[in-house]
Design a protein that fits this description.
about 0% strand, mainly alpha, about 160 residues
Length: about 160
């Protein structure tokens, strides 16, 4: 049984991996039932779409954690250090503001979609919009963790 520290440290990867397994198995089952048994499973495609949403947003959060999102520093590298620092602070504020907006947006969509079921499984559409909320909330946490780590490293 993994420890709580392990789960917290690798939470995004664990959720994204589980969701990817769901996507792979549901797609394989859908192909198998369609071409082998000639009795397609109508839920397989819908489950794959739902799982893919979880893979995308939790995977994006993991990318924040490991600084894998691209950044272009051509402008800041040509500026004086004080101006470059100001631009970096503006970028950090914009990224965090966008993530916070998406959390708010995701919460609104998730609440509004609670009474709307998916077409086949009849699950609330919140299952589809929930990863937006969770993923962007985790992106804020991981981004702030990176900022703190980078500032400690720069101060050392």
């Amino acid at each position: 049984m993994p420890s709580l520290r392990f789960i917290v440290r690798y939470f995004e990867e664990l959720v994204a991996s589980a969701a990817l397994i769901v996507v792979i198995l549901s797609v394989c089952w859908g192909v198998l039932t369609r071409y082998v048994t000639a009795q397609p499973a109508p839920w397989a495609g819908e489950l794959a779409v739902l799982g893919f949403a979880w893979v995308v947003f939790f995977g994006a959060s993991a990318c924040f954690k490991y600084k894998l999102h691209p950044s272009i520093d051509m402008l800041t590298s040509s500026l004086p250090s004080s101006a470059a620092r100001a631009v970096r602070l503006l970028v950090h504020a914009l990224v965090l503001g966008f993530c916070a907006y998406m959390v708010w947006f995701g919460v609104r969509f998730s609440i509004d979609a609670w009474d709307n079921p998916t077409s086949v499984l009849r699950w609330p559409l919140t299952v589809l919009y929930g990863p937006v909320t969770f993923g962007f909330a985790l992106m804020i946490v991981r981004y702030v963790e990176r900022l703190v780590a980078d500032s400690r490293q720069a101060g050392a």
